[in-house]
Hints:
Elements: H1 2-23, E1 32-33, H2 35-42, H3 46-58, E2 62-65, E3 69-72, H4 77-97, H5 104-123, H6 126-141, H7 147-159, H8 161-164, H9 171-189, H10 193-203, H11 205-222
Antiparallel strand pairs: 1-3, 2-3
Helix pairs in contact: 1-3, 2-3, 4-7, 4-10, 4-11, 5-6, 5-9, 9-10
Amino acid sequence: MGTHSRSLDAVMNMIRSLEEDIVLGRLYPRERLIEDQLAERFKQKRHVVRQVLNDLETIGLVVRESGKGAIVREYVPDEVNNLYQMREIVEGQAALMIALPVPRKDIAILEELCNTYAQSVADGDMRSVIETNKVFHQTIYRLCGNPFLSDVIDNMAQRSNLVRFSSSADPVLLEQARDEHFGILRALKGRSNERLKKLCLEHIQPSRIRYLERYKRTERNSGTG
């Protein structure tokens, strides 16, 4: 049991680290993930690395191509728009289901997360920015009262890591996201679910827009667009 637990922890730690690399643009779309290099980097055996790559493939962040092995997935514009259309549906519905105003104990948790996120942005602590952002949104959508819906939202957000790298390190967009978090928090203290839905859906758009702009530039520069 102890060995299994340590192996599971190793897998989860590797997945978190590689997700962070994708979000921050350290790993780019279509970049190869080489087993030997990952085993050396994380000081893990090959079977652990293979499990990580399998899990990343399952959640849609990695694909396997004949002769190339595992590579970071790249979304084409239609896939990005379809993904974000799905996010708008599920996140919008969840926002409408949250009982407003949110109880004080939950507001206190969200206020702390907002403040932590703001400080992380100010400090340039990107690891904390990513983790705090994730927990902030998970905390909000779990308030909808439907754990199946909140799980779908988590899955869609995880798949969106492939899109976020285009905007995750932009100081202007990080400050915008910080301000939007506080705006969402104010809406959670109010009584308008439509207002909350509007703010939540507006909040996810900058990453999609920036990714599509980058994709268009890349295609134009390569002469294929």
